[in-house]
Amino acid sequence: MLRDYQKELELRVEYIRNCLKNAHSDGIVFGNSGGKDSALVGILCKKACDNTTGIIMPCQSRRNYEEDTVDANEVADKYGIKTLTVDITPAKEAVVGEVGKVTDLTTMALANINPRLRMITLYAYAHANNLLVAGTGNRSESYVGYFTKHGDGGYDFNPIRDLTVTEVYEFLEFLDAPMSVRTKAPSAALYEGQTDEQEMGMTYAQIDEYLFNGPDNLPNEIVEKIERMHRNSAHKLGKANVYFDNVSDK
What we know:
Blueprint: H1 5-23, E1 27-31, H2 36-48, E2 52-56, H3 62-79, E3 82-85, H4 89-99, H5 107-129, E4 131-133, H6 139-143, H7 165-174, H8 179-183, H9 196-200, H10 204-213, H11 220-232, H12 240-249
Helix pairs in contact: 1-2, 2-3, 2-7, 4-5
């Protein structure tokens, strides 16, 4: 394994408790999507704070209502995480209906409404109950900008932001998380049949190889794609100066 996960567990639990103490918050809320990242965040937060709530937020995609909800509940049941469900489909339909009156919405514009509505939901619940919102994004996604700005990219703290996908899976194995979460194809389920790796055109293993060891063992086209996605997502990563430097260099 890449890390001492017992030590990682202790350090991350302490980190979460310090976040709560410094913010004078009563607990934590996170989006329980039924995926690997939200499972790990939920487990860590529950170990740090008993008042941890996971909200399942299905939106249009059949997978949201079926497989993802089943897996989310399995994780919650195993670790004793309080679970609520908020169906955001009517909210999306309302947004699309009104914005659609003034412009034609592209496929990605439509897809990115989902994570932004989910973050609105989490913060509304958090404010009503004096909670912090836990983020669920990992290092691999972050490096290539595979997240939605002001959606899953928004949070009060994120206890796994430095972990690659490889490390997330190893951590879940250490914690004996349900196999259903550890073996399913990563997907935000933004539309029917969507998977992360298919959409990116490369695997997380390739991204992690780049992050761990550099570009030497990867095909040139994969290296170019990783580096291009990283450059193009500078605005998402709080690197506006880098982004504009890149533009001026062309």
